[in-house]
Amino acid sequence: MMFFIKRKFRGAFSLLNRNFRDFFLDDLVWFFHSDRKKIPADLVAQYKVIFRRTSKFLEVYPKIFSGDDLNNKLKWLMLFDQDPVIIDLCDKIKVRNFVEKNVGQYYLNYI
């Protein structure tokens, strides 16, 4: 689909600034993207940010419902698995406190 859009609008895109062109192309692809209709209304803004960042840095469009690679699975987790405990477990100091509270200080190494 991306190739078709670029081929069809090749002349118009050559006149535009590169940043504006990429932004416009992302909006056009976003409009026809199949995952857009499957996202709940309250998560559309977050998914749009994920969509733009993925297209900018990885130069591919995310397919979180049909993708098989790790990046798409992580993007699905970013949207639908927003548990506050996961945020705490990403910080090693908070993990130490979590382990000390739940398991005990015996299992921790000393700093």
Description:
There is one protein chain. The protein has 111 residues and is an all-alpha fold. It folds into 2 domains: 2-82, no CATH class; 83-111, no CATH class. Helices cover 63% and strands 0% of the residues. The chain has 7 helices and no strands. The chain has helices at residues 2-8, 10-15, 18-32, 44-57, 70-80, 84-89, 92-102. It is elongated, with a radius of gyration of 20 Å. The mean pLDDT is 77.
Keywords:
111 residues; mainly alpha; 2 domains; 7 helices; 0% strand; elongated
Structural class: mainly alpha
* Quantity of strands, as a count: 0
Share of helical residues? 55-70%
Assess the beta-strand content as a share of residues.
under 5%
| Succession of helices and strands | HHHHHHH
Largest sheet: none
Short description:
This protein has seven helices and no strands. It is mainly alpha-helical and 111 residues long.
